[in-house]
Amino acid sequence: MSYLKEVIGYSFAFGKDYTVSLGGFLLVIFALVATHFFLRLLRRIVCARLKQEDQYKFITLFTFLKYFIFTIVLIVSLDSIGIEVTVLLAGSTALFVGLGLGMQKLFQDITSGIFILLDRTVSVNDIIQVEGKVGKVTQVNLRTTRAITHDDKILIIPNHKFLSEILYNWTQNYEKTREFVEVGVAYGTDVDLVKEILIQVALDNRVVLRMPEPDVHFQDFGDSALQFRLYFYIADSFNILKIKSDIRFGIDKAFKEKNITIPFPQRDVHIHQK
Asked: Which residues of 229-242 are buried (b: 16+ CB within 10 A; e: fewer)?
């Protein structure tokens, strides 16, 4: 027993001004390990009572909180064994200033990540558009947000971009979105027939919602065509490229059956000989 006390009481130098016993060192390790298991248990208990959507937000915020708690536990543990952390921090002021300047973007991203989670700017499964790129959000972390594009590529977006740039969130208000397809027909075509065909093509597509109903707008008298725009609602905006393609195929087929011509611009070239 005396041998065990002697081992635990064994001290070793830590820098010039501090000595730490093996028992004190083990106390710090025990405090960190106990904190780890406590936080792990707390996370499981809370997540079990949350909806899946809220779990993602809680886990992200909990990660930030976990690091904060570990820092507090470490400071208190070191102070309890005689190491004054405040003195060490004061002596490293210049170092921390340099690190702060170098990690400014990182802090901006983390702060932005917290705001995103609190005000629900972006959530998992939202369809977003940033800098002309469209993606479906798969993960919201403290520093970055991940989204998958139509081409199955992963967008890794620094969170500060959501606060400093314009963000389009296609599905924040509702899951359904209003989309459109444009088409032109030759002058002299029955415009009422065109409207009827376009609406029917939209209704024939299983992805297009029945309510609100599809609608057709007569956009303009173009240089070589009457311009129409078919509006419709869908609940799967992430696959909008394929949906629009299918509708265009349907329009082309229906127009051919009704002998409706889709014109193309023509230019007359006159050659004058002198």
From this structure: ebbbbbeebbebee
